[in-house]
Amino acid sequence: MVEPASLGSSCEGQWRQQIISRMDFSGTIGVLLAICFVCLLYLSSRKKKNWSNLPPGPIPLPILGNMLQVEVKELIKSLRKLSETYGPIYTFYLGSRPCVVLSGYQVLKEALIEKAEEFSGRGDFPAVQMWSNGNGIVYGTGERWRQLRRFAISTLKNFGMGKRSMEERVKEEAQFLVSEFRKTEGKPFDPTFFLSCAGSNIICTLVFGERFEYTDEKFLTLLNLINSNWKLMSSTWGQLLFTFPKIMRHVPGPHRQIYKNYLQLAAFVGERLKMNKETLDPNNPRDFIDCFLIKVQQEKNNPNTHFNDETMSKTTVNLFFAGTETVSSTLRYGLLILLRHPEIEEKLHEEIDRVVGPHRSPCMEDRSRMPYMDAVLHEIQRYADIVPMGVPHTVTRDIKFRGYTLPKDINIIPLLCTAQADPTQFKNPGCFDPSHFLDENGRFKKNDAFMAFSAVSLPCREASLPGREPGHHGALHLPHHHPPALHPPVTGGAC
Fold first, then answer.
1. Class of residue 448 by CB neighbours under 10 A (exposed 0-12, middle 13-18, buried 19+)
2. Distance between CA 398 and CA 409 in Å, rounded?
3. Edge-to-edge, what's the strand order for the sheet holding 121-122?
4. Residue 152 near residue 137 (C-beta atoms within 8 A)
5. From CA 432, how far away is CA 157, in angstroms rounded?
6. 5: buried, middle or exposed (CB in 10 Å: 19+, 13-18, 0-12)?
7. What are the distances in angstroms from CA 113 to CA 30, 54, 128, 319, 378?
8. Dist CA 51 CA 60 (whole Å)
9. Which SUPFAM superfamilies match (predicted)?
């Protein structure tokens, strides 16, 4: 029988031992936390040291940064407004991440042309990067991105980008589009759907080698996925994902649909890749996918190649996704602008009748003899401002820029829209005015501040071809057709 005294002594000893063990454990945890805290302070001080000579900007709040100082749904407008206070280069915090915002033609020119190599890094765009993982031609980086971009540009050019084969495809699509318009029999209708189909089909003929009927269920599903993602990325949820990517990836909400939509687009592209592989003739490539498959075969013995199935899939999705929206938007804005300005449409018809005549459609070879048409096409893309903010960049090393220190990998937000609305480059930036691209003799003139889809450096201009050139081709045919349902013209507004 155990004596109560000895039992109490034993329990007390065990209790003391547990207390000591817990104190040791707590002490260890405390030391580890202290070490982590010191490390965080050290890293923070190093960052602050690197950030000590950033451009001025609005004072950020902890964690939230400057997000409470802007309208999330009107982010571009808010960023432009801030440039009026802080100048053409300022610092803006997306959460805890500092970004340097560039605005105005001169600053954008200095950064993206004169220091193109230093500003050539790709910045954060979580809505795309969570699917692409830095692969593809839009948000890729480094040598892989350079090789993919170079290949895409040369391949698309060989498949008629700016050449006659593209013209024939666009002319064919224009006939289908006008046919759909005429089916409305003069009744009021919303042309958005038809223009989206036409714009996407122009890209489809390049990437997939064929067009789709406007009633094709799979085609309509793809268009819905693309439209859904653009809407989600520009929504409040999309902006929150852009600002707090690490947190929002684990938060339920409609923004998670962006990734699911990308997977569905990738699945469709995967089916096309499989079909093309099974029917590939290396001597007779039919589309962009065939050309990529041939390139993969040519590089199969190169251990350092960047051409593989994953890269092919993501590059194809990039072209289809971005190209569809930019071409469709160009067509929509072109139609709306011509309706709003019947006097400009009339001048276009006079030039078409004089140069082309009544028996054929205008073609790209006619552009050199149609300066007013060329000016209108450029002004549509300038005024519509389809891509107001360029792809986020980063600087590739620590650099001095306009008296400030920009540390390596800091995000750069180029507001391309501010170049296109720069009053030092365009006399009436807020108005639709084709004379922005005409000289005193009525001849077409280029303007370096024209940044409709991309930065103004030559490689970036070439990289915008999938959006810019098909858009020019498609818009070229808008004034040639007079669907009765599109009249009377829209009126109202200053410009």
1. exposed
2. 8
3. 89-94, 97-103, 411-415, 393-394, 121-122
4. yes
5. 30
6. exposed
7. 52, 21, 25, 24, 21
8. 13
9. Cytochrome P450
Strands 97-103 and 411-415: parallel
Torsion, CA 172, CA 378, CA 224, CA 187, rounded to 10: -70
Residue 453 has a pLDDT of 66
Q: How many helices (H) and strands (E) does the chain have?
A: 18, 7
147, 141 Cβ separation under 8 angstroms: no
CA distances from 395 to 1, 123, 440 (A): 80, 9, 40
Residue 422 burial (CB count, 10 A): 18
- How confident is the chain (495 residues) per 10-residue block, as mean pLDDT? 49 55 51 46 45 90 90 86 95 92 95 89 70 70 80 78 64 87 86 90 88 94 91 83 79 88 91 94 90 92 88 88 84 88 91 85 80 92 86 90 94 92 93 95 92 54 44 52 48 53
CATH number of this structure's domain 88-486: 1.10.630.10
Q: How far apart are CA 342 and CA 436, in angstroms?
A: 18
pLDDT at 452: 75
Residue ranges per domain, the chain?
A: 88-486
Amino acid at 318: N
Phi, psi of 317 (to 5 degrees): -60, -40
- Please tell me whether the peptide bond between 488 and the residue prior to it is cis, using omega within 30 degrees of 0: yes
| DSSP codes of every residue in 357-407 | -TTS---GGGGGG-HHHHHHHHHHHHHHTSS-SPPPEE-SS-EEETTEEE-
The residues, any chain, with a CB within 8 Å of residue 452's CB and separated by 6 or more, are 378, 381, 382, 386, 387, 420, 464, 468
What's 150's DSSP letter? H
Q: What is the Cα–Cα distance from 419 to 455, expressed in whole angstroms?
A: 10
Q: Which two tokens stand for residue 352?
A: 């078409």
User: What count of residues does the chain have?
Assistant: 495
- Model-level pTM? 0.77
The sign of the torsion formed by the CA atoms of 367, 370, 375, 377 equals negative
Smallest CA-to-CA distance from 233 within 387, 103, 99, 120 is with 387
Res 160: pLDDT: 56
- What is the model's pLDDT at position 217? 94
Nearest to 473 by CA among 164, 191, 131: 164
Q: Two tokens at 185?
A: 């029999």
User: Which H or E run includes 135?
Assistant: none
226-255 burial, b at 16+ Cβ within 10 Å, e below that, comes to bbbbbebbebebbbbbbbbbeebeeeeeeb
From CA 426, how far away is CA 450, in angstroms rounded? 10
